[in-house]
Methyltransferase corrinoid protein (Desulfosporosinus metallidurans), 210 residues
Amino acid sequence: MKLLNEIQQATIDGRAPEVAQLTQQALDEVMSLDDIINEGFISAMSIIGEKFKNNEIFVPEMLIAARAMKAGLKVLEPLMLAGERKYLGKIIIGTVKGDLHDIGKNLLGMMLQGGGYEVIDLGVDVTPDKFLAAVKEHQPQVVGLSALLTTTMPFMKETVKVLGESGLRDQIKILVGGAPISQRFADEIGADGYAADAGSAVELVKAVLS
Ligand code: B1M
């Protein structure tokens, strides 16, 4: 699809205003949110990630592409957030300690909100203690941890451990996700579930709360 290719290329090139404009055009042409996100943005980020791995681009270009993707997501946000206001449950989300990647986590938050859940987003670089304090304060049913770096995966494990030792573990379900995370890792660290993408995370939340 030509327009989705254009969104992908403009995201890779970091042309934020154009990404926003093309995203609006895609919505006007009644393209689905899933197609715009998957074929426009996420595919662009995969290409960016490959280029970075191969030393064809460096951190600034990655950052500029990320900003362009955010500009596109901003256009989609009102549609993703539209829906039920009577919440189905409360979820705390955050990117674990040492990790500053927030695009996937933000997408997760928007999809969960669109799915009818109240979302408390703790942001990035969230320490295990901060997760614990938030659980005590907000008493959610679910905690969603995101990690994009292999070097920050141990903090996901640490967070599960700290929540486990808190005496509150049986009141919450801990779900994990992010590019380097797998079901096997989730099992190893004692999480209650793993989702490969934001869409499946909403399904997973539904399943663990049912
Ligand atoms: Co970074 N980065 N980055 N980066 N970056 C990756 C992750 C990398 C794979 C690139 C590569 O080498 N190919 C690599 C990690 C390698 C590794 O650990 N194995 C990497 C690296 C090395 C780094 C730095 C160390 C680079 C450096 O400084 N030398 C540095 C680390 C900074 C830090 O965090 N301390 C760094 C920095 C950055 C930027 C700041 C420039 C920028 C982030 C901007 C931002 O987020 N605000 C950035 C970007 C953009 C990327 C890539 C290109 C794209 C990430 C992204 O946004 N993807 C990434 C390569 C890649 O992933 N292909 C890369 C799109 C997003 C929608 O997908 O986040 O995977 P994702 O989320 C998905 C799913 O994973 C899932 O749902 C989402 C949507 O469906 N999901 C969950 C995510 N969290 C979930 C939680 C759940 C459930 C599902 O809970 C229930």
Notes: The pocket of CO-5-methoxybenzimidazolylcobamide is lined by residues 42, 45-46, 48-49, 52-53, 59, 62-63, 66, 98-105, 107-108, 144-146, 148-151, 175-180, 195, 197-198, 201 (CB under 6 Å). Residues 70 and 103 are 7 Å apart (CA to CA).
